[in-house]
Write a structure and sequence with these properties.
Length: about 150
């Protein structure tokens, strides 16, 4: 039986990650299963990003159920952009890098590169997040044949 979206949002809001990544992934798989195959739901996607922002150092899988679900829903990229502005995390910067690994129109690609560049000086970004973001930017620069400035 599929749970209603409000129940799923409540479960995401109540979620407390453990130190065990596999436990987090297992519990999130159970929650996210109810959203698979539903129409795009901005409040549910926002609840996922809010969870990641509340626990920026938590391990939610790589890519894990949150990323797998979000990447199937149209419009998640706008919420990802907002999340990067509010509270950059390893997971959200990694998602932005994944977007950059796909074919993007030039303007969109430049916008995502700018968002990642802003993470490198974001006051709420942990040092490890800044460092991994710099590696993503260097990787993207090497893909385009240009050194990052």
């Amino acid at each position: 039986m599929t749970r209603i979206v409000e129940d799923i949002i409540a479960a995401l809001q109540a979620f407390e990650p453990s130190a065990d990544e596999s436990d987090n992934v297992h519990r999130l798989n159970e929650i996210c299963t109810g959203l698979q195959g539903t129409a795009p739901n901005a409040p549910a996607m926002a609840a996922i990003f809010a969870l990641v922002e509340r626990f920026p150092a938590a391990e939610f899988g790589t890519p894990g159920p949150l990323v797998h679900l979000l990447e199937t829903l149209p419009g998640y990229d706008a919420l990802l952009a907002g999340s990067l502005l509010r509270q950059p995390t390893d997971l959200t910067t990694w998602m932005a890098n994944r977007l950059l690994n796909t074919s993007q129109p030039r303007e969109e690609r430049l916008a995502w590169l700018q968002r990642l560049t802003q993470v490198t000086t974001h006051p709420l970004a942990a040092p490890a997040v800044r460092e991994s973001t710099i590696r993503f930017l260097d990787f993207q620069a090497s893909r385009s044949g240009r050194a990052r400035s």
